[in-house]
Design brief:
The structure holds two protein chains of two kinds. Chain A is an alpha+beta fold. Helix content of chain A is about 35%, strand content about 25%. The radius of gyration of chain B is 15 Å and the shape is globular. The chains are: A alpha+beta, B alpha+beta.
Chain lengths: ~160, ~150
Amino acid sequence: MTNSPKMNDSSGRAVDDSLVTVLGKVSLFAGLSRLQLVFLLGATSRVEIPADQLFFDEGDSADSLYVFVAGEAVVEKRMPDGWRLLATLRPGQTVGEMAVVDRSPRSARVRAVTSCIAIRLDSGGLESSHEIAATVYRNVAATITARVRAYTDADDRRTE
Amino acid sequence: MSTIVGMPKVLDDALINALSRVNLFEGLSRTQLIWIINATSRVVVDTDKLFYDSGEVTEVLFILITGGVSLEKKVKDGWKVIDEISLGHAFAELAFIDSRPHTTRARAASKSLALSLHKYRLTSAHDVSMVLYRNIAAIQSQRLRQLNEKN
């Protein structure tokens, strides 16, 4: 019996199939083939953050997004009376996609609640393939557009 | 009623220079801008006529070259202007991205000329579509940040 051939990513590392499967379920990467996901994985770095440490702080400069692989983290924004919880992040979810396109400082912090593992993707790595980047940026635009529409739809309901 | 004029036969330097100043096309080379011009149609719309109506589904991005365009939303007693498009600016980018029906109509406030770019044209040019989608995402991202701050 022969073993199935092992694939290497764009950096020549052996591919972790479970990570490719995680990426395949992320809405930002919808429309990418398995081969493109393998290539994309090679442009990422693995990040491990202990419990109660920060992935990034509010106001930090930014040009990367994170895909959560394991653990739980929270998105928090500074308010006059402390930190307000905006969202809880679990495996398969992403954070920081707006920073990849507009390079604005982080508008909130992301703190690990438990020990976390995530994949970090910056715009330079993403744009090493124009075809992959075009698909991902289109998905980022669709995600942001949906949030903009949610605001404008709510405005419409208020004025009706 | 809009009129499709067709692709330009001769590349117009003034048009290329104008497009190079549009934030949507920031980062595109001169060659890529020429590709954009060749991939678009020119649409002329007479005063008070529509580029598109509310509820209509289009997958076209418009860039206003001459004239003026009002984006209007239907309200109880008629139409309310919610935005006016400046020369060189794009409109219809939300529907271009998500293919949902327009929630506004785009009315020519004066006789207007726009370039129209259909989404399918981008599938053959990954370098251009990468920059264009990134810029659309960045513009919408700034808009979302402003909405977040207001709310």
